[in-house]
Automatic annotation (TrEMBL):
Pfam families registered for this protein in UniProt: ERMP1_C
Name the UniProt record assigns to this protein: Endoplasmic reticulum metallopeptidase 1-like
Family of the protein in this entry: Belongs to the peptidase M28 family.
Domain named Endoplasmic reticulum metallopeptidase 1-like C-terminal: residues: 1-158
Source organism, top-level taxon: Eukaryota
Organism in which the protein naturally occurs: Sinocyclocheilus grahami
């Protein structure tokens, strides 16, 4: 995260010369880049590396989906994963987040959302819910939201790739 770019790093870490520069894809959520913490980058470099297969891969599942009496759709999820994870939420056209279990249920804004979750070792599964308000011209049975979760393995045998 250096505003001068790569020029001061490459003499000390020659592997950086193999990095691939990628640029913002403005049609994708978060410009097509994974986020870590609350930082967002409009360009990034990736080092080619072999595929990573963690010994304890992330487990993600939808626990329930119900239509509420006030016209929203409430979905509950469970995640089992490493101590640091990122959740990305992007409502589709005609849908908006109207509530969630984060921060006492208070939404700060609508549209794309990013949640960073961290815990100590041997923590129980992470459970959360989101509630989506659907406009009248959208069927609640259609896709309402794109949701993705990424795992950050920072310790243990999976902490290095």
């Amino acid at each position: 995260m250096d505003y001068t770019g790569m020029q001061h790093i490459t003499p000390h870490i020659p592997q950086i010369n193999d990095s691939i520069s990628t640029h913002c894809q403005d049609w994708l959520p978060y410009y097509g880049f994974p986020r870590f913490f609350t930082l967002q980058f409009l360009k990034s470099w990736y080092l080619p590396a072999p595929e990573v297969s963690p010994k304890a891969p992330i487990e993600f599942q939808l626990l329930s989906r119900q239509q509420t009496q006030w016209g929203t759709v409430k979905m509950s999820f469970e995640v089992k994963g490493p101590s640091h994870m990122s959740l990305y939420l992007s409502p589709h056209a005609g849908a908006s987040l109207s509530g969630w279990s984060f921060g006492g249920g208070m939404l700060r804004r609508s549209g794309e959302s990013f949640i960073f979750y961290s815990h100590g070792l041997d923590a129980p599964a992470w459970t959360f819910w989101i509630e989506i308000l659907v406009s009248l011209n959208v069927s609640p049975e259609e896709g309402l939201i794109s949701l993705a979760i990424s795992a950050h393995y920072l310790s243990g045998s999976d902490g290095r790739s």
